[in-house]
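for the recovery benchmark. tokens below, seq after
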């Protein structure tokens, strides 16, 4: 039985000079670092009223992290005290020196004197306070030590102090050899390393029970809310392995190891840690708990549920379904409605991979509201909204549903779901092509979540919703030609979400897409082609589509057509309507370039029908512009002008700068083509109006550095100025055209056969 009891706590042993008085029932032990804290508390009590109010406040704020945190070197502890009260730091150092350089009886006397803190009518420390509990734990742990353990503690204290003295001596010698400028730089660097950094976890021995619990809860909270402030995956796993080495049955350490493995997408380690967590949970809870709502049965069903979620995350849907069936069976046997509702939510996610069905989700939302599970109900509503957005439901109905979800969030103070809801609204407005509304929602979330450093749990700056909104914001700025602002946003994203974090793929994809668009606008197709591989690795559909765009720009029409046809079939199969429409528009452009204008019309009409059916207003407007261009090519510019007025307003209001330029360029082309049948006076007015539209188009193209389109506009303007007899303006446009024409390669495609 002794071995069983010892396994529940940390193994009693001496490691690197740390005495472990881990008797059953005592979850803490005395270390040299904790003795230094005891000296600090003793000197703090002696100082009394001599300390100023500001110094006492600083020390009080410092004490709690010191008592809860891991052991640290004496130099770091002394530096932390000096920042709060230099006089007290000197007193602590002198007291420790006297004890370390004195005799064993001095340490004995010190612990005897600690009990006096609780004596008297007005004691210095209350027994039930945080400091009082710490003192009592240390006194109890010290009294449990044998004589040999007391002697080992005394020698470890001497080593602890001597190590600090040697370090101070080495620092003094280095100061003599270092010039003042280098010394100032080094001191500034050291000052940046605060005394309570999360990275400084490594200590001379294993953590105590309380230190381990504090460390685990802190790291788990950081992984959820602010992953960048948590330890790096390798460092955290090293610390967890150290914890499990001394206590293999520490269930919480296995669960944190599972979360840490998820960060790096390690399916084997994450599965291994998750199973170990529930194994340990059952071993420690089965003896005292029944097989009802708590204990063995509860651990089994939630183990199966978590295993299903893990397999689903890694795309192992068959294994996830088997684990979920097991969780449902055990939950039904135990009559656990809460677990069943979670199972129902995951069942919907798995069913969604096979076919679209709202029945399970609607049932899950109703049941969650019935059993008082607002978090689950809200997630169900938002999933339902997302599915109906892809199904083409009206935006006002979706926003009404999200408003009902927001009422649940505010009522139950679900701050994380408030952020998710706003990010969802941003994405929906982007889907419908309303960039102004998307920008407004993004700014709303950014104003709610300050970019300044905040305490964990107060504001969640590094969650997925925050990453999604910032990515949309970067893309919106890039579309409007503000590439410097987009780069700043992406730079901030890289700082907030390093490459090894779980949400880093979001900004990686957007960064690659923005670079691709810039390279295409600038005519650097070889650079755009090199970016396709990176986009494909993050999103295969986007990568294939952009590969086809590059092939089309390089006049490899047959290869581009084959690729687009395969992509079209795949997107129709998975019901990715947005990409289906984009692919149809690209196929229509291939037909134009191949002089098959009549074949392009049915393709465009199919795209227009889909865009209107699914309420994709911006894609519908873009399709109408392509139809107008087809009519221009077929020789009916008047009809093209009529439908242009219907589609150009949404493009100018919500479109990208490049699309605005293409739209104005098309209007000018239609005006010139229509002017052929006008009277001379009316023809001059039409041509002058076309020149004004070309100037506007030229401004848009210059904003995104689209040199090929600028060359075409300048050529068109030069021809119009020549027709109007404006020689000076014609020569200026001709000169600018020649400069761009020499810089850019000519592909031999007629000017009239390209809309974009």
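predicted aa per position
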């Amino acid at each position: 039985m002794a071995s069983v009891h010892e396994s529940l706590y940390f193994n009693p042993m001496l490691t690197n000079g740390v005495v472990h008085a881990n008797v059953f029932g005592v979850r803490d032990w005395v270390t040299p670092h904790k003795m230094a804290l005891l000296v600090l508390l003793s000197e703090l009590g002696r100082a009394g009223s001599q300390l100023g109010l500001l110094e006492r406040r600083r020390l009080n704020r410092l004490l709690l992290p010191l008592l809860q945190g891991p052991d640290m070197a004496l130099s770091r502890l002394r530096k932390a005290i000096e920042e709060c009260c230099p006089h007290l730091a000197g007193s602590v150092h002198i007291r420790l020196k006297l004890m370390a350089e004195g005799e064993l009886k001095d340490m004995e006397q010190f612990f005897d004197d600690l009990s006096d803190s609780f004596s008297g009518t007005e004691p210095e420390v209350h027994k039930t306070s945080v400091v009082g509990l710490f003192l009592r734990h240390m006194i109890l742990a010290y009294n449990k030590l044998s004589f040999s353990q007391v002697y080992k503690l005394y020698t470890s204290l001497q080593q602890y102090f001597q190590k600090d003295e040697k370090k101070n001596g080495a620092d003094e010698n280095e100061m003599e050899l270092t010039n003042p400028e280098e010394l100032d730089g080094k001191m500034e660097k050291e000052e940046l390393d605060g005394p309570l950094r999360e990275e400084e976890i490594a200590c001379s021995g294993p953590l105590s029970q309380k230190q381990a619990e504090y460390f685990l809860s802190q790291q788990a909270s950081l992984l959820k809310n602010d992953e960048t402030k948590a330890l790096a995956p390798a460092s955290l796993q090293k610390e967890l392995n150290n914890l499990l080495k001394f206590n293999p049955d520490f269930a919480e350490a296995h669960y944190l190891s599972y979360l840490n493995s998820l960060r790096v997408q390690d399916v084997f380690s994450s599965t291994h840690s998750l199973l170990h967590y529930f194994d340990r949970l059952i071993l420690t809870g089965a003896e005292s708990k029944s097989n009802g709502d708590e204990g063995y049965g509860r651990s089994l069903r939630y183990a199966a549920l978590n295993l299903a979620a893990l397999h689903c995350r890694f795309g192992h849907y068959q294994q996830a379904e088997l684990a979920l069936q097991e969780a449902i069976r055990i939950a039904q046997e135990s009559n656990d409605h809460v677990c069943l509702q979670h199972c129902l939510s995951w069942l919907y996610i798995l069913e969604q991979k096979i076919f679209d069905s709202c029945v399970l989700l609607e049932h899950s939302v109703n049941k969650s509201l019935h059993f008082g599970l607002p978090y689950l109900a809200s997630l169900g509503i938002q999933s339902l909204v997302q599915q109906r957005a892809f199904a083409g439901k009206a935006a006002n109905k979706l926003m009404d549903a999200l408003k009902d979800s927001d009422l649940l969030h505010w009522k139950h103070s679900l701050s994380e779901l408030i952020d998710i809801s706003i990010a969802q609204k941003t994405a929906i407005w982007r889907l419908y092509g309303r960039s102004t509304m998307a920008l407004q929602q993004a700014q709303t979330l950014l104003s709610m979540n300050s970019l300044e450093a905040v305490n964990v749990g107060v504001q969640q700056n590094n969650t997925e919703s925050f990453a999604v909104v910032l990515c949309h914001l970067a893309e919106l700025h890039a579309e409007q030609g503000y590439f410097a602002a987009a780069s700043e946003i992406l730079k901030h994203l890289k700082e907030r979400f390093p490459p090894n974090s779980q949400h880093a793929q979001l900004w990686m994809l957007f960064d690659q897409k923005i670079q691709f668009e810039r390279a295409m606008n600038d005519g650097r197709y070889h650079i755009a082609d090199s970016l396709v591989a990176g986009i494909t690795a993050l999103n295969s559909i986007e990568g294939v589509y952009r590969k086809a765009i590059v092939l089309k720009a390089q006049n490899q029409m047959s290869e581009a057509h084959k690729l687009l046809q395969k992509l079209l079939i795949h997107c129709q199969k998975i019901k990715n309507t947005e990409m289906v429409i984009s692919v149809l528009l690209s196929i229509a452009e291939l037909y134009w370039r191949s002089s098959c204008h009549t074949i392009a019309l049915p393709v465009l009409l199919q795209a227009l029908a889909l865009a209107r059916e699914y309420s994709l207003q911006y894609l519908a407007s873009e399709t109408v512009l392509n139809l107008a261009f087809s009519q221009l090519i077929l020789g009916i510019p008047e009809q093209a002008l009529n439908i242009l007025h219907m589609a150009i307003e949404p493009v100018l209001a919500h479109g990208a700068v490049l699309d605005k330029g293409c739209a104005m360029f098309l209007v000018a082309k239609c005006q010139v083509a229509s002017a052929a049948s006008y009277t001379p006076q009316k023809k001059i007015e039409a041509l002058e109006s076309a020149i004004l539209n070309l100037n506007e188009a030229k401004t848009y193209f210059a904003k995104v550095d689209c040199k090929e389109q600028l060359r075409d506009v300048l050529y068109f303007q030069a021809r119009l100025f020549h027709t109007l007899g404006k020689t000076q303006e014609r020569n200026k446009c001709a000169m600018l055209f020649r400069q761009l024409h020499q810089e850019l390669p000519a592909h031999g495609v007629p000017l009239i056969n390209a809309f974009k």
